[in-house]
Amino acid sequence: MTSRRLSRSEFLGMSAVGGAGLMLAGGIPAALAAPSASFKPFKVPLPVPPKAVPRDGGVYRISADEFQQTLHPNLQLVNVWGYDDGTTKLYPGPTIEVHKDDTTMVEFTNKLPGTHLLPVDPDLVGDRGIAPRILTHLHGGFVSGENDGNPYATQNEYKTGSVAGATQRVTYPPQPRATTLWYHDHALGMTRLNVYAGLAGYFLIRDDNDTGEEEGLKANKIGIPSGAYEIPIVIQDKSFASGQLFYSDEAEWEPEFFGDTIVINGAVQPFLTVEPRMYRLRFLNGSQSRFCHFKLGPTFNQIGSEGGMFDAPVSLKSILLLPAERADVIVDFTGLDGRDLVLQNRALPEGVVSPATPNLGSLMQFRVRAASVTTPPGPTSIPMSLPGTLPNFGDPGPAHYRYITLEELLDSDGDPIQLQINGREFDDPVDEKPSAGSIEDWFFVNISADTHPIHMHLTHFQVIGRAPLDGAAYAAALDAARQAGTTLPNNTIDPTPFLLGPEVQPPRNEQGWKDTVGAHPNQVTRIRQQFDLPAGVLPPQKYVYHCHILEHEDNDMMRPYEVV
Structurally, how many domains does the chain consist of? Predict the structure, then answer.
C-alpha cells in the first residue's frame, strides 16, 4: 500500500501556467507495505466471466459470498469475496446481460461471514458497524433512488446474519442506450474493502444493433466483432501476503491503495490467444486508486465510453482510464500472426496526477495465432460510422450552474486525513437539489493534489471542457471567505476570477456520454447533465456523487444530492 504525501504548502506553491493541462510534481509515495510473491507473467489464460442465469420469473438471484479461487498457480487457493448466481461462485461476478428495453429484477443476498476479510476502520463506518454489509450499485444505471444502491437513499444496508434484511431487491427499468455498465458494492465506509475483496461484475446493455451475437438472425448489424470475439477486460491491482489478499495490516484509513500485482478478470497477468482478425475489447478500470494508460502496438479504435457508442470510431495510440471509466474498443490483429503483444501501462499524460507506485507496466499478453482462424473471418474493416450519438442538450441550455470544490484535509505533518467536497462531509445537509428534467452545468474546481475521477449517479453527462486555474489564489480566497463567516452558496465560491486561460474542449474520445470524469489539479472541469427520472418515478429521489478513488469515497469525498 502506498500513501499520498504532499503538504498543503507544497501544493499551494504550484499554480497552473498556460494551457489546460499541467503536470504537478512533488508527491512522495511511500514504499509498499507488503510485497507480493514473485509471479511469472502470462502463465494463466484470461478467464471470461460467464453470463448470469436468471431464475424463475426472470429474476437474477445473486448472492455475495466468501470462497476460494485460483488467481495464479503460485497462489494456490485465495480467499476472495464474489458473486454466485446459483451456477458459479466467481470473482469477478457473472456478467448480467440484458436488452435496453427490458425491465430487470435482481436480488442480491448477503451470505458473507460475520467477520470482514480485511481490516475495517471503525471511524469510517459509524453506527452502521464493522460487520460485513452489502449495498449493490448498478454503476451507470438510469434508476430510481431506492434502486440505485447508494448509502444516502438506502441507509438500512444489507447485513450478514439478518434473515429479514439480508436481501436487496432492485428493479432496473429500461436503459437509454446499449453500453457497458458494471455492478459493485457501495456500502458506506467499506466500499474500498468490499470491492477489493471481489464484489464487482459486468452489466452489459444490448440493443437491436449491438446484439452480442456473431451469427444468425440476431447477429450484430453494425460490422463490429461479437460473440467469442468480444472480450470483457476488468483491470485491478492487488497485493498478496502469505498467499492471500493483502490490503493493510492496520485498520486505519490510508489515502490511496496501489497493489503490486495486476489481476485481470480474476487472473494474475493473464494471456489471451487471439486470431489474426478484429476483436472488441470492453475495458473497465476496476481498481481502487490506480490509473491506467494503455498502449498495445496496434491502434485502438474506440467506439464507445461509459454511456454508450459514439457516432464514429476514434483512432488512438493509447487510452487513459481512471477508476470506474470504461472504453469500448476494437483492435485489429490482422497481419500479426505469430506475434506476442503486451498491453502496457504507460506514464500518465501531462496534467493527470496520481502518486501510484510501482507503475506495473505489463498488464496482459495477446498471443496472435494463425492456426486458429475461423471461417468466416467476421468483420474485416472498422466501420466508418456507428449508431451511437454524442450528447446534444440543445436550447435553451443549462438552467443552473453549480461550483463543486474538491478539497483535501491535511494534518500538521502535511499528511491527508480526509477528502471533502465543498468542505462538507457526507452526513452534512444536502446542498444540491436540481429540479427533475432540468439541465445543469457543474464545475469541478480541484484544489487538491491529485486527479479525482468524479462519478455521478443517475445521469450520463457531457464533458464540456477544462480550464486552467490559479489554485493557490482560489484556495486562499475560499479560506478567507469561510473564516469571515460569509454566506456561500454550497459553501464555495465562483472560480471565474481565478482562471488562467480559456476552457479547452476534451479529447474526441471524451466527447461521448460519460458517467465518470477526471478532474485534474489546478483545473476547473465542466460537465453538462440533465436530471431526468425513469418513467413513473416521481421526485424527490436521492442519489450521490463522489470520487471513484475508493479510498477517497470512503473518507469523505462523497456527497448526497436530491432530484426534486
Answer: 2
